[in-house]
Design brief:
It is built from nine helices and eleven strands. The protein is of the alpha+beta class.
Length: 300
């Protein structure tokens, strides 16, 4: 997409079930070494660690699932109109769904921005405890400066539950995610119940499940059960075309793979449907305003 386009960009970030804040990588993506990878556990959530260099600004990012980010190095700045929130290292932030932000990830004096994030399966929010909490729902974002040790311990255990399905039974994983939601409630915020999504979000969820596939309008219509004329009309009503939405899904998936894995750029390009690394890089720069290599510390 051309720079200067101010339509909201939707970042898929979740799992193969539906999109959240990261598009789900295809098999093989989780082969990156150590914990620098995207962990997906259906019906529970998604977890990853971002490593980034330089100061980069991502415009019009939409949060599609409830999300908690823990900043380890550097700082994150969230902007939306007159709203601005800065989260420093050692702090956390909870973001509710359907919010649009310009996001700045800023490296510290040592040249590093690092953060961990967790998204929650919507069903966990529907069943969150305590159900009769008087804590107000988060309207946009809730900063959690210096979270308590119990919160940090719960965050670590929830991450482990997502990353190690073989050693943590699903019932325990769900319990750990709900425990983290209780800690969030005690910290002064809770996620609102999930709301129905628009047509473009439904389309995005399908595309984000396999961003590298050779999608066609006809194939997508078959999955949605609508005609191609209806697809064009309903996407246009929300400011999208099929091709522009597909490109944005792919670039959003690529951004998260660049941030949260050590995969080579060419591998990432192929994962999101581009055989040509140069064409991929041009599309990425068009969407975000900088080259893919900038995320990993190279000259922009």
């Amino acid at each position: 997409m051309p720079r200067g386009d101010t339509r909201p960009r939707h970042v898929g970030a979740a799992s193969r079930e539906t999109a959240a804040i990261t598009a789900t990588p295809r098999p093989g993506v989780n082969s990156a070494p150590s914990d620098h990878r995207i962990f997906v556990r259906p019906s529970v959530g998604v977890a990853a660690r971002i490593v980034q260099h330089n100061r980069l600004r991502y415009s019009n990012i939409v949060i599609n699932r409830p999300l908690i980010i823990l900043i380890e190095h550097g700082r994150k700045i969230l902007c939306n109109g007159d709203f601005e929130l800065t989260i420093k290292a050692g702090s956390a932030v909870a973001l509710c769904q359907d919010q649009v932000f310009d996001v700045v990830n800023e490296a510290d004096a040592d040249g590093a921005y690092q953060a961990r994030w967790i998204t929650f399966d919507p069903e966990l929010i529907l069943g969150q405890s305590p159900p009769a909490s008087t804590t107000p729902p988060i309207e946009r974002a809730l900063a959690l400066g210096g979270p308590e040790k119990g919160f940090l311990d719960a965050y670590h255990l929830a991450t482990q539950a997502i990353a190690e399905p073989g050693s943590v039974p699903e019932a325990i994983a769900v319990h750990r995610m709900k425990e983290l939601l209780i800690w969030l409630d005690l910290a002064g915020g809770r996620f609102a119940l999930p709301r129905p999504t628009g047509f473009a979000s439904r389309v995005r969820n399908i595309l984000a499940s396999e961003p590298g596939e050779s999608w066609s309008g006809a194939g997508l219509c078959t999955k949605l059960g609508v005609s191609e004329a209806t697809l064009r009309r309903m996407l246009s009503a929300e400011g999208w075309s099929f091709q522009s939405l597909l490109a944005d899904v792919r670039m959003s998936a690529a951004m998260q793979l660049l941030q949260s894995t050590d995969l080579p750029v060419l591998h990432i390009a192929q994962e999101v449907g581009y055989e040509s690394q140069s064409r991929f890089a041009l599309r990425f720069r068009s969407r975000f305003g900088f080259a893919p290599s900038a995320i990993r510390g190279h000259r922009r």
